Amino acid sequence: MLETARTGSLTVVTDDTFASVVLAADRPVVVDFWAEWCPPCTAISRSLAELAEEFAGRMIVATLDTDENPETTRAHGVMSLPTLLVFHRGEVVGSIVGARPKHHLRQSLSRHLAG
């Protein structure tokens, strides 16, 4: 079984693990594309960690550092941070660009929950 790093309830993905963790997942995955230098990224990280616990078993909440993982960032056309992409069965089915309050994130992501 593939080992993935976790930060709290968030699953950390990289260029090397993206396909196996995100694209091959058996449930929806939201990927937070972020960077250390991005204040709005920091602002939503706590909300995403809380939502990861709330959505446990129904959605994977993953995080990808864009500075350390440029291949995946480029491959998915991420131009602004933070960007959240929702994947289901390997396809992008939703996106949120820019920081949003937790209630907005919950509402937007809830429509993609499994089971």
UniProtKB/TrEMBL annotation:
Keywords of this entry: Disulfide bond, Electron transport, Redox-active center, Transport
CDD domains documented for this protein: TRX_family (cd02947)
GO cellular component, as recorded: cytosol
Site feature: Contributes to redox potential value: P39, P40
Family annotation (SUPFAM superfamilies): Thioredoxin-like (SSF52833)
Family under the similarity heading: Belongs to the thioredoxin family.
Annotated protein name in UniProt: Thioredoxin
